[in-house]
Design goal:
The protein is about 30% helix and about 20% strand. With about 260 residues, the chain is of the alpha+beta class. Strand 8 and strand 9 form a beta hairpin. Keywords: Membrane, Transmembrane, Transmembrane helix.
Length: about 260
């Protein structure tokens, strides 16, 4: 299967990339995320961030946030931007895939507000422990030991914890409205399960993989899953082309110029 990533300025592309991030976390060759971390979190943020070039340029990116409900189900995804988003010339620079486990519902509510939230300012995302059995060293009884936001990254073939101190996250209400087919929709509505996600857009795959993570499972993609991933990538690219004429929060940038 091609390693090419789709346009990630649309929800279709961001959902594809979120599934891609989870594939990395579920790979049996990686240490994985502690199952208790996913089981007890109140939300998960799945991002694609770049320091320069590739699809994005500068320290920018995009992604989704998904709330974890009391009944252990997952909400539909809400669109986020990191700093700002854009597409430009492919320069082959580093892309980081990031998973952030949000351990408090109040922080999920903060992240669903349509204002900028600074990681390291309003929120603190610290190094997350790795290893599917690592929860034995944590306290998941609501003590301050897990009262925070924990970040993991996949970069240059290495999966592990990172500390995020400068990222600025913001909800993308217009992209949410486009994807959910409504004139207006708030991130709060999405994360509180008041509307359903469009069918067969990869959201069901996200929920399935998050459930696997919460059980400490690993996943090796079957040929059918690989083919589906390829089809979803093509769908995301098509959505990106169609959305460019209506997107107002996306800027075109020259990656080489940004690097210089």
């Amino acid at each position: 299967m091609s390693n090419k990533r789709p346009d990630r300025t649309t929800m279709e592309g961001m959902i594809w990339n979120a599934n891609h991030v989870l594939d990395k976390a579920l790979d049996p060759k990686t240490p994985g995320i502690p199952r208790g971390m996913i089981k007890n979190c109140k939300g998960v943020i799945l991002l694609s961030m770049a320091e320069a070039g590739f699809i994005f340029s500068g320290t920018v990116g995009s992604g989704v946030i998904i709330a974890h409900n009391e009944d252990n189900s997952w909400s539909p995804p809400s669109a986020l931007s990191v700093g700002g988003i854009g597409w430009g010339l492919v320069a082959g620079k580093e892309v980081k895939d990031v998973i952030i486990c949000v351990m408090e519902r109040g922080n999920v509510d903060t992240l669903s507000a349509e204002t900028q939230v600074k990681i390291g300012g309003q929120l603190s995302a610290t190094l997350g422990p790795v290893g599917r059995e690592a929860e034995t060293s944590l306290n998941f009884n609501g003590t301050s030991e897990i009262r925070g936001t924990y970040a993991y990254t996949w970069s240059k073939g290495v999966f592990g914890g990172i500390s995020m101190e400068t990222a600025v996250l913001k909800v993308r209400p217009k992209e949410n409205a486009r994807f959910y087919g409504k004139e207006s929709v708030s991130s709060k509505e999405i994360l509180e399960n008041t509307l359903a996600a469009p069918k067969d857009m990869g959201v069901e795959d996200l929920h399935y993989k998050l459930d696997l993570l919460s059980k400490g499972k690993a996943l090796v993609l079957t040929p059918a899953q690989v083919e589906r991933k390829s089809s979803m990538r093509n769908l995301a690219d098509e959505a990106g082309v169609l959305a460019k004429s209506v997107q107002t929060d996306v800027m075109e940038v020259d990656a080489d110029e940004e690097v210089a």
